[in-house]
TrEMBL record:
Protein name: Iron complex transport system ATP-binding protein
Subcellular location, principal: membrane
Gene3D superfamilies in alphabetical order: P-loop containing nucleotide triphosphate hydrolases
Location relative to the cell: Cell membrane
Keyword Coiled coil attached: no
Bilayer topology annotation: Peripheral membrane protein
Lineage, top ranks: Bacteria, Bacillati, Bacillota, Bacilli, Bacillales
Length: 257
């Protein structure tokens, strides 16, 4: 089964061009989009989430062209956690997460189901004990969890995340990756995320998609994709790479003076 299928995407913004990009995301998989700054990773994710409008090409989500979805129907199918650092209004954690239920607001007064979804999102992200705290009093990592909980409360089978581990310390980065892995495995959600941290991308994801200058230059399993040749060509980094227990050990070659 295919969660996301994109064919021949083209999109321009300023001097940047996304050029003939195609991708295939299997249902139930965990995928990382990696690549240097400005290579088009967020743009690609935003096109899939319909936050940007394609110039040409097609994107299907669950075998259906994204342009044929009604807005709330799409929001019940795919959730996206953006890189947004917008100020969050003065509301509690539970109230914030309840926004994730907006695509179900046409479904009458089924308050029970809505409350269940919010409780579940709080519980999965370990935020139940802080449900009545004001969001702006949470730490950066806790806020990141709340934003993931909001996406979970949307009860979609596909979740996109743009740099979910940014601003987190190493412990919280791994905690978050473990959480996403659990959501993927236990709750069978398809997860696609932009990541800069190559170790985490390789250790946790089934598939890596590598972007450079608006194009996809490699796709595949981490050990096949993350090679010395790729680091040199895509990141201009001369380094040795070996894998230990799914983790890539990347050692840059430094010129000795
Ligand atoms: N609204 C805009 N107008 C003009 N150019 C834009 C706009 N938004 C993004 N860009 C440019 O498009 C290119 C791709 O941006 P994008 O955010 O997709 O890259 P990225 O790979 O996610 O980068 P990063 O790793 O730095 O977050 C960049 O050169 C960026 O400056």
């Amino acid at each position: 089964m295919t969660a996301i299928q994109a064919e021949s995407l083209h999109f321009r913004q300023g001097a940047f061009q996304l050029d003939d990009v195609s991708l295939h995301i299997p249902t139930g998989s965990m995928t990382a989009i990696i690549g240097p700054n400005g290579s088009g990773k967020s743009t690609l994710l935003r096109l899939v989430a319909q936050l940007l409008k394609l110039e040409s090409g097609t994107i299907e989500v669950n075998q259906k062209d994204i342009t044929t979805y009604k807005r709330k129907e799409f929001a019940r199918t795919l959730a996206m956690m953006t890189q947004s650092h917008d100020a969050i209004p003065a509301i509690t954690v539970a109230e914030f997460i309840a926004y994730g239920q907006y695509p179900y607001s046409d479904f009458g007064s089924n308050k029970h189901k809505q409350t269940d979804a919010i409780d579940w999102a709080l519980q999965v992200t370990g935020l139940t004990k802080w449900r009545d705290r004001m969001v702006h009093t949470l730490s950066g990592g806790e806020k990141q969890r709340a934003r993931i909980a909001l996406a979970l409360a949307q009860q979609t089978n596909i979740i996109l995340l743009d740099e979910p581990t940014t601003f987190l310390d190493i412990t919280h980065q791994f905690e978050l990756m473990n959480l996403l892995e659990e959501i993927n495995q236990t709750h069978n959600k398809t997860i696609v995320m932009v990541l800069h941290e190559l170790q985490q991308a390789a250790a946790y994801c089934h598939q890596l998609i590598v972007m450079k200058q608006g194009r996809i230059t490699a796709v595949g399993e981490p050990e096949q994709v993350l090679t010395e040749d790729l680091l040199s060509k895509v990141y201009q980094l001369e380094a040795s790479v070996r894998f230990e227990q799914n983790y890539p050990i990347i050692i840059p070659r430094r010129n000795k003076t």
